[in-house]
Amino acid sequence: MDKTTIQIGFLGMGNMAQAIATxxxxxxxxxxxxxxxxAPHQDKLRDNAAKIGFIPCSSVRDAVSxxxxxxxxxxxxxxxxxxxxxxxxxxxxAVLSIALGWNLERYRSVLEDRARIQFVMPNTPAQVGEGVxxxxxxxxxxxxxxxxxxxxxxxxxxxxxLPARLMGVGGALTGCGPAFxxxxxxxxxxxxxxxxxxxxxAYQLTSQMILGSAKLQLVSKKTPGELKDAVCSPGGSTIRGxxxxxxxxxxxxxxxxxxxxxxxxxxxxxxK
Length: 272
Ligand SMILES: NC(=O)c1ccc[n+]([C@@H]2O[C@H](COP(=O)([O-])OP(=O)(O)OC[C@H]3O[C@@H](n4cnc5c(N)ncnc54)[C@H](OP(=O)(O)O)[C@@H]3O)[C@@H](O)[C@H]2O)c1
Prior knowledge:
- This protein has helices spanning 15-26, 42-52, 60-64, 79-86, 104-111, 143-154, 164-194, 199-220, 224-231, 237-247, 250-265; strands spanning 8-11, 35-38, 55-57, 69-72, 94-97, 116-121, 131-136, 157-162.
- The protein is of the alpha/beta class.
- The chain folds into 2 domains: 8-162, Rossmann fold (3-Layer(aba) Sandwich); 171-265, ProC C-terminal domain-like (ProC C-terminal domain-like fold, Orthogonal Bundle).
- It has an 8-stranded mixed sheet, sandwiched between helices.
- Helix 7 (164-194) crosses helix 8 (199-220) and helix 7 (164-194) crosses helix 11 (250-265).
- It starts with 7 loop residues before the first strand and ends in a 7-residue tail after the last helix.
- Bound molecules: NADP nicotinamide-adenine-dinucleotide phosphate (NAP).
- The site of NADP nicotinamide-adenine-dinucleotide phosphate (NAP) has 29 residues, from helix 1 and helix 4.
């Protein structure tokens, strides 16, 4: 497939779709006129179109018509109504969906085999080329369609594939995880501010520390335990900090955040 000629229609142009559209244009070599998008708030859509470069559409059918790929990027609870509204407009289309919980099986229960489906869980760090794109292994995309999207998303981050049964937890980890890390950045920075470090400097130092720690783990391939042990000298300040975190349920809190996000995924009416 030739990426320079494909047409892509977005249904929904919120935070995640904007990150993907921007990445497609700035990193993946897709031109603005290859992208169309529909969202109900037309003023906001036109503002984003002017900023990002896609073509705004006034109806879902407009966004789908002539598109080789349709990206469903609205909230999960909006999809059923959207599919109703689309009727047979998706027949024969390749539909890439990024909505948590809307996997191949769920689309098939509504659309049967009228459209080819690929479920992908992206995340917002894609905006800076450090995203994670989880592809559901089970898919009705043609091999060349799947290969094309893996190639496009690889320009914005890491691409991995998971079986359907693990997409919920994978999506909770990588899709919801950035918000959990944001809380962590804010909390460490608050502590630094309380000792007098200016707030912007506190954010910069905290984020760089987290970025560096993550990169060290990825590059060294050492376990987090090994890396933690290496900086905890006996009787030192780091081990005292580790003990304070354990006393306050740090790891249990992180684990329960993922469990809460995954359990939410099981509820069909879930909004995230
Ligand atoms: N944000 C993330 O980090 C992330 C990560 C992974 C997956 N996702 C998935 O991405 C999807 C979008 O999330 P988001 O954070 O980007 O949400 P968002 O910012 O709230 O965007 C939702 C978009 O859907 C549009 N919309 C609402 N009703 C619609 C309809 N009937 N037809 C077409 N579009 C409609 C909204 O338009 P208006 O603004 O005009 O109302 C908006 O553009 C969700 O399904 C989520 O599970 C998000």
